[in-house]
Design brief:
The complex is a heterodimer.
Chain A: E1 2-6, H1 10-22, E2 27-32, H2 44-49, H3 64-67, E3 70-74, E4 78-82, E5 87-90, E6 95-97, E7 100-103, E8 107-109, E9 123-124, H4 129-138, E10 144-148, H5 152-161, E11 167-171, H6 184-196, E12 200-202, E13 207-211, E14 214-217, E15 222-224, E16 227-230, E17 234-236, H7 239-243, E18 248-249, E19 251-252, E20 265-267, E21 274-276, E22 281-283, H8 288-302, E23 315-320, E24 323-329, E25 334-339, E26 344-350, E27 353-360, H9 366-375, H10 384-389, H11 397-404
Chain B: E1 3-6, H1 16-24, H2 31-35, E2 45-48, E3 53-56, H3 65-69, E4 75-78, E5 81-84, H4 94-98, E6 105-106, E7 112-113, H5 126-130, E8 136-139
Antiparallel strand pairs in B: 1-8, 2-3, 4-5, 6-7
Classes of the chains: A alpha/beta, B alpha+beta.
Bound molecules: flavin-adenine dinucleotide (FAD).
Flavin-adenine dinucleotide sits at the interface of chains A and B.
C-alpha cells in the first residue's frame, strides 16, 4: 500500500501512528510546505518566552520518520488533487500516486481586508515557527506592538513577547477577551490579569485604516505602533479537496472514518468539520487533541483497520500570565456558579447531562468534568451537587469506582 | 500486566500512600527531611467525604486521553506505562483537562507530574508498599 499525507503536524503525526498500528509495511510519504521536523504549533509563544527551545518543542523524537518508515518531502506544496488518477501534484511538478491520501493541511490565518494594511512595514501573523521567528527578529525593547484580535492566538502572542517590548496593545471587536470561550464575567478576570501586567486591552473596537505606523480606530482615536500582529481568526485549508470536487462547508466534510467525499481521500485536523457532541452540530474544532485523534482514526481507516469511535468536543486549557483557564463544551442550559477571590467556576447542564464548563484559577481535576460531557453521563446517576462543588470520583458511586479503580468487570 | 488497584473496603483513609508517594518522588533519602514542612504533591490521592474513602492514581489507560491530547508530546505510553518528560512539558494543563480521573497535576515548578508506577523507584509502587491494610495492591487482574 502507498500512503500520502499532506501536512506534518498533529493530524499528520496521528495518521502515521494510526497507519503503523495496522500496517507496519506500507510506504508513507509526508508532504509539507514547512521545512521543519514536526513541531508543536502551540509552543511558538513558549519559544518566544524562553520556556522551550527548538529541540524540546519537537512534537515527536528526532528519529520519528525513520522509526516509522516515512519518506519526507518538506518545503513542497501540494497544489492539485486528481482523485480519479489517485495522484497529487506538487508545486515542483512532481506527481505522487497513492492508494489512499490524507489531507492534514490545517488552517491558515485569516487576515480581513483592512484599509492601508499594505502600508504597514512590520506586519505578522502568529501561526507558525516561521511567523514566530520573523516576529522575534522584529522585536526591540522599546517597540510598541499592536495585536488585532484578543482570542487565544492573540493573547498567547502577547504573553510570548511580554517583557521583550515596550508596550502591548490588544484590540478586539468583541466586548471582552477570549470571546469564543469565555463569558463576560470570566473574561473580566483575565482582563484584570492582563492589565495588571500593563497590557492595554481595548474592547469593542476595530481598525478603520492603517497608514504606516499609525492605526486609525473606528472610535476616532489614533494609535501609533511599530509592530502589528493580526490574529483575527483562522480558516481551514479546504481548497485542495474543494477544488477537486469534494464537499466542503467551510471545513472539509468527513464521515466517521475521516473519509471525504472523494474516493481514496481522507482528511483530519483543523481543516475538517467535526461533530461537537456537546451541542450536536458540526463545527471546526481547531484544537490539537482533535487533530491528533482525527489523524489517528484516519490512519487506522486508511490501512484497512476499524478506528475506535471518537467523541469530540471543544476543549481548551490556556495559561495566561500565570492564570489558568480550562473550558469545554457548550454554554447552554442551567448554570451552577461559584466564585471566590482566586477562582471562577460555571457549569452548564441541560437535558440531564453536563454540556459545558468554564474554570478560571482553580482548574484542578477539570478532566472529571470533561468526561461527564464527553460520556454524556446521566446526571441522575451521580451525586451532581457534590461534583459541582468539587470534581472527584466520590460522586460516581461504588460500582463506577470498582470498575475503574479496582478493575472489576461487573 | 501489573497495575495499582484499590480495595475500597480496606482503605482506612490514613493517607500514608500520599506520604510514601511524595517521599519516593522527592529524590531525598530521609522521609522526615523530604516531607517536613512541605506541602506534599503526591501522585496518588485519597478521596474522603467522611463516609467513604479510597485512593486514586493514574489508571495507565489503554486509550490514554492525556497522551493523545498532549500538545507537546511530553506524555507517552510505553509497555503499558504512561510517563511524562518534564523537560518537554510546558505546563499547559491540557492533560488536566483531559484525564477522566483527575490524576495529572502540576509539580508547582512549571511542568506536570503523574504516577509512573515507581519505574525508577525500584519497580514496586511505594504507595503499595506503604499501605498498612492492603487497600492498595500491585497485581494482575
Ligand atoms: C499560537 C497558537 C497557539 C495554540 N494553542 C493551542 C493550545 O493551547 N491547545 C490546542 O489544543 N490547540 C492550540 N492551537 C491550535 C493547534 O495548533 C492546532 O489545532 C493544530 O496544530 C492543528 O493541527 P493540524 O495537523 O490539523 O494542522 P496544522 O498544525 O495547521 O498543520 C498543517 C500543516 O500542513 C501544511 N500544509 C498546509 N497546506 C499544505 C499544502 N497544500 N501542501 C503541503 N503542506 C501543506 C502546513 O504548512 C502545516 O505544516 C494553537 C495554535 C496556535 C497558532
Amino acid at each position: 500500500m502507498k500512503y500520502v499525507i499532506i501536512g506534518n503536524s498533529a493530524a499528520a503525526v496521528g495518521a502515521v501512528e494510526g497507519l503503523r498500528s495496522v500496517d507496519p509495511e506500507g510506504a508513507i510519504t509526508l508532504v509539507s510546505n514547512e521545512t521543519y521536523h514536526t513541531y508543536s504549533r502551540p509552543l511558538i509563544s513558549y519559544l518566544l518566552q524562553g520556556r522551550t527551545d527548538r529541540q524540546r518543542m519537537k512534537y515527536r523524537p528526532d528519529d520519528f520518520y525513520e522509526t516509522n518508515g516515512c519518506r519526507t518531502l518538506f518545503g513542497r506544496t501540494a497544489v492539485k488533487l486528481e482523485p480519479e488518477k489517485r495522484s497529487v501534484l506538487l508545486d515542483d511538478g512532481t506527481a505522487l500516486t497513492y492508494d489512499s491520501l490524507l489531507v492534514a493541511a490545517g488552517s491558515s490565518p485569516f487576515v480581513p481586508p483592512m484599509a492601508g494594511l499594505e502600508s504597514v512595514e512590520k506586519h505578522f501573523s502568529f501561526m507558525s515557527l516561521d511567523d514566530a521567528n520573523a516576529l522575534e527578529q522584529a522585536l526591540f525593547p522599546e517597540a510598541r506592538v499592536l495585536i488585532v484580535g484578543a482570542g487565544l492566538i492573540g493573547l498567547k502572542c502577547a504573553e510570548g513577547i511580554f517583557g521583550r517590548v515596550g508596550k502591548i496593545t490588544v484590540l478586539d471587536l468583541a466586548a471582552h477577551v477570549l470571546p469564543s470561550i469565555l463569558d463576560e464575567a470570566g473574561a473580566a478576570l483575565v482582563q484584570r490579569a492582563l492589565e495588571s501586567k500593563g497590557v492595554d486591552f481595548r474592547p469593542g473596537v476595530s481598525v478603520k485604516r492603517f497608514s504606516g505606523g499609525s492605526a486609525e480606530l473606528a472610535d476616532g482615536q489614533a494609535l501609533a505602533f511599530d509592530i502589528l500582529v493580526t490574529a483575527v481568526g483562522v480558516r481551514p485549508n479546504a481548497a485542495l479537496v474543494r477544488d477537486a470536487g469534494g464537499e466542503t462547508d467551510g471545513g472539509i466534510l468527513v464521515d466517521d472514518k475521516m473519509r471525504t467525499t472523494l474516493c481514496g481521500v481522507y482528511a483530519a485536523g483543523d481543516c475538517v468539520l467535526s461533530h461537537d457532541l456537546s451541542c450536536g452540530s458540526a463545527r471546526i474544532l481547531a484544537i490539537l487533541p482533535n487533530a491528533y485523534s482525527g489523524g489517528f482514526a484516519a490512519g487506522t481507516a486508511m490501512a484497512g483497520g476499524e478506528p475506535a469511535p471518537r467523541r469530540t468536543l471543544p476543549m481548551n486549557a490556556i495559561g495566561l500570565f500565570g492564570l489558568h483557564i480550562a473550558t469545554a463544551g457548550s454554554y447552554t442550559g442551567e448554570v451552577y456558579q461559584a466564585q471566590d477571590a482566586e477562582s471562577y467556576k460555571k457549569l452548564f447542564y441541560s437535558g440531564g447531562v453536563l454540556r459545558g464548563y468554564i474554570l478560571i484559577g482553580d482548574v484542578d481535576r477539570a478532566g472529571i468534568y470533561t468526561a461527564l460531557i464527553r460520556e454524556q453521563t446521566p446526571l441522575s446517576q451521580i451525586d451532581f451537587p457534590a461534583v459541582c462543588r468539587e470534581p472527584s470520583l466520590i460522586a460516581f458511586g461504588r460500582a463506577y469506582r470498582d470498575e475503574k479503580l479496582a478493575g472489576k468487570k461487573d | 500486566m501489573k497495575r495499582v488497584y484499590v480495595n475500597e473496603e480496606w482503605c482506612l483513609g490514613c493517607r500514608l500512600c500520599e506520604y510514601h508517594c511524595a517521599f519516593a518522588n522527592s529524590g531525598k533519602t530521609h522521609m522526615a527531611s523530604a516531607l517536613m514542612n512541605v506541602k506534599i504533591r503526591p501522585n496518588i490521592r485519597v478521596e474522603d467525604d467522611g463516609k467513604v474513602c479510597y485512593a486514586v492514581s493514574c489508571r495507565h489507560c489503554e486509550e490514554p486521553l492525556c497522551v493523545t491530547s498532549c500538545i507537546t508530546g511530553a506524555l507517552t505510553r510505553e509497555n503499558g506505562v504512561i510517563t511524562i518528560d518534564g523537560a518537554r512539558c510546558v505546563g499547559c494543563f491540557t492533560c488536566v483537562l483531559s484525564c477522566p480521573y483527575g490524576c495529572v497535576r502540576p509539580t508547582g515548578q512549571g511542568a506536570m507530574q503523574k504516577c509512573e508506577l515507581c519505574l525508577t523507584n525500584g519497580g514496586v509502587p511505594r504507595c503499595v508498599i506503604g499501605c498498612p491494610n492492603n487497600a492498595i495492591v500491585f497485581e494482575e487482574r
